[in-house]
Amino acid sequence: MAKTKDRTNRGTKGGRDEAPRRTNRIIAHQAKCFKISSSRRFHAATAVLLLVLILLLVPVFYPQKFTPDVESARINGADPVRLSRVLDFLDNFVCQYKPTHTHSIGKDNGDKIDIPGYCHPRLASSPQNRTQFVSPSNRPMKHVQPITSLFSLEHSITWWRDTLSHRQTTDKVEGGELVMRLPRPLQIWDLDALRDEFIRTNFLGLYSGSSAMNRSKHVARHKESSNPLDSGAYLAVYLLRMLHGSQLHPNHLKDQCGTETDVCMNTTENHVNEVDSGVRWVDTSSAFAERTKLLTEYLAILPTYADRIISSSGDINLHEHPITWNETILASLFPKYTHTFNLILNYQKMVQSEYDALRALSFDEFGKNVNFTEYTGMRVNVLSRAFSVMVSDDDVGPSWTNTNHSQSLSHEVESYETSNFGVRIYSAGTTEASGEFKFRSMCPLLDMYNSHPNPNVLWKYDSTTSSYVVHAQREGIPSGHTIIVSYGKYTEGHLFAKYGYVNGDGSSQTEVGLNVFHRIMGDVGLSTQYSPLPFDMWDYKKNRKTVSSTHHIASMERRTLEIQSKELLRYLMFDDGHEECIQFQNHNTTFSDHQKLKLLKFQHLKRLANVGEAWIVRLPPRDPNARPIQHGTNVSSNKRGGDTKVGINAKRILSLCRLLSLTVDDIGGHAITYLRDGLSGDDSTSSSSVYPHFRVEKYENTLEYRSLMCIVRLTDVALKRYGHFTEPNGHDEPKRAHSREWTAWYIRDGEMRLLKILRQTAASEAMKLKVRTHLSHEKIVMREMPCPIDSSLPMLQIQTNS
C-alpha cells in the first residue's frame, strides 16, 4: 500500500508540475503548426496567383486567329477618327437598323418593307479593311479588340472556353444561313434619283405644276453624240445633293470642319449662302431632310476623290481607281490603244462628258456647287458600288419614294429619257416584254464586301420584302474569313477599269480587242452607258428603244465616220488571195468582180466597225477554281495555273477574218452573192441572236488558211503596241502585290499571253491545214506588206450601191 501511495503521491505532485509544461508544449506545437500552415498557405496562394496570371497571359501571347483577310499593309494613311466612324457604320448602320415607323406600301397586298436590318451574330467588323468577317467565337465580336481588352477576365474566359471546345477551327457560319439583310429604306436607287425634283426639272425636262406648259424641255445629253446620260450619272448627283445637305446640319458641320482644313468650312459656307439666296441645290423640304438624316452615316464613309490619290509610286491605296489617273500615269502603265487602256480612257471620257452636260444645264446650281473632281469621286462610287435590282410593276420596292401612286411603273420609266431607262428586259429569242425593269441601287454594307468569281455568299434582291438578302454558300464560311460576294463575271481589264481592282489569282477571263487598224466609236465596252456615236448608228437590236434616233447626226459625227472609214481601208489593203493588188480609179463607173467583192467587204466592215463584240477575243480563267485569298496571304504569280491546254473564244474574229480574206472563187464561186445577201437580209437586225450580225462560216480550206493567217497578222500588230513590255525585262513582276504597278503588270501580262496563245494556235492550225490538204500557193497568197493606199482610197467616194 505504501508503494502505491508513494507512487500516487509522486504522480499527484508530478501531475501538478506537468500540467503547465504540457500546456506549453501544446501551445508550442500549435504555434509550430500554425507557422507551417501559414507558410503553406502563402505558397499555395502564390501558386494560385501564378496560375491565374498564366491563364490570363496565355490568351494574350497566343491570341485566337481572327485577323481579317486583307493585308494590313494595304492600308494607306488610316485616320483614327475615320476608322472609328467606319467601325460604327459596320457595327450599326445596317445590323442595328430598326424601323422608326412602319410604312404599308403597295397596292392590295399591304406589304411592309420598312423592316429591321440584320447581320449574323458571328459577324465581326474590321474598320481598317472596311469589311466584315466571321468571328471565331460564338459570341459576337464587333471589331478587332484593342490591346487593353486582351488582359480582361472576359477575354481569357472566352479564349479558354473556345480553345477547350476547339471552336477556333470548327466555328463557321453554316451553309444557307442568312448573313445580312439590307432593307429598302437604306437602299438608294437610281429610280429614287430620277424622282428627285431638282434632277427632274434641271436635267430631264420634267416639270410639275403650272410652269410645265410654259417651259421648253431640256434633257442632259452628251455633246458629241446627243445620247442621253446614263441613270448612274443622276444617282451620283442625288448622292452629292444629300451629302451636301448632311454637311449643312449643325452637328455635322462641327464634326467635319472642326477636324479638317479651312477648305471644308469655306465650301460649307458657300453652300449656306447659296441656299439662303434661293438656289435649290440643297433641298430643305422635310422629306429630303429626313432621307438625308437616315443616310448621313453612309454618305460620310463613301470614298472621296482625294481618298483615291496615292502619294508616291509603289504605295497601296484600297480606294485608288484608274478613272482618277491623269494621261501620263495611264500611258505609263498601259500602252496607248491597248484594250485596257481604251476601256479606262472611255470611262474617263464618259465622266467628263456627263459633268459637262450637267453643268451646261445647271451652271448656277449644279455647276457652282460641284466641281469636276467631286463629281468624279461620287460617279466612281456609283460605278464601283451599285448593285442591280430587277423589279416589275407589282413590286412594292419602287413605291418607296414614289409620290404619284396613280402612275404605273411602266409609264413612269418610259418618261425618263436616259440611256438605260425606258428599256424593258426581253426574254431571249422573243420580242415580248417580260414586264421587268433593271435598276441600280447603292447598297450600304453590301457594297463593302469584297468580290470574287467564287464567293462564299450569294446575294439577291427579295421582292417580297424589297430587301437585299445575303446567304452563306452551301459549304459555309469558316471563322476568320471575310464575307466575299460576286459582282458578276467580268474580264480582268474590265474589272479593273470599272471597279478599280483585280483579284490577281487567274480567276477571271482575259480579253483583248483586235481592232488594230481603227478605233471603235460605237460599242466601246460601256454598253449604253456611253458611246461617242449615237446609239442607233451601231446598236441594231430591235428590242431596245433608241431615244437618240430623232436627233440628226452632227457634222462632227460625219467627220468621225469619214476618218474611221479611211482607217478601215487598212484591213483591206493586203488583198489576200490575189497575186496582184486590186486597183481602184477615181470616177469609176464599172467594176470587175474583184472590185465588187472588195466594195461589199468594205460595206460589211463599216457595219461591224463599231460593234465591239465583233473584234473581241477572250481567254478562259487561268484558274477557274481559285478561291478568295484569306488570312492576309500574298498573291504570287507562281501560284497561278500554267499554260495548259486552253480554249479561246475566237469565233467572231475568225468570222471577220474570213470576210477580209474572201475571193471571188470562194463559197463555190458565189462570194459576191453571199455578201450582197448578207447586207440586204434580216440577219443584221435579228433580235433572237446573241450576236446579231452577219457571219462568214467555214467553207473551203484555202479560205480557212487565209483567215487563220489573217489572225496571225492582227495579233502581230496588237503585240507591237505593248512596246518595251514585250522585252524580257518588261515581264518582271513588281515586288509589291496589288500596288498600281503590280496590277498593271498583271493585266498587261494576261493580255500579251492571250495574244501569244492566239497567234501560236492560228499559225499552227494554218500550217497543219496547208500540209494536210496540199494547198496551192496561188490561192493562199498572204502579203507581209500592204498594197499602196492610193489603190484603195477611191473606194471612199464610190456609192455604196455600186
Automatic annotation (TrEMBL):
<keyword id="KW-0812">Transmembrane</keyword>
<keyword id="KW-0472">Membrane</keyword>
<feature type="compositionally biased region" description="Basic and acidic residues">
    <location>
        <begin position="1"/>
        <end position="21"/>
    </location>
</feature>
<dbReference type="InterPro" id="IPR050600">
    <property type="entry name" value="SETD3_SETD6_MTase"/>
</dbReference>
<keyword id="KW-1133">Transmembrane helix</keyword>
<protein>
    <recommendedName>
        <fullName>SET domain-containing protein</fullName>
    </recommendedName>
</protein>
<feature type="region of interest" description="Disordered">
    <location>
        <begin position="1"/>
        <end position="22"/>
    </location>
</feature>
<feature type="transmembrane region" description="Helical">
    <location>
        <begin position="42"/>
        <end position="62"/>
    </location>
</feature>
<dbReference type="InterPro" id="IPR046341">
    <property type="entry name" value="SET_dom_sf"/>
</dbReference>
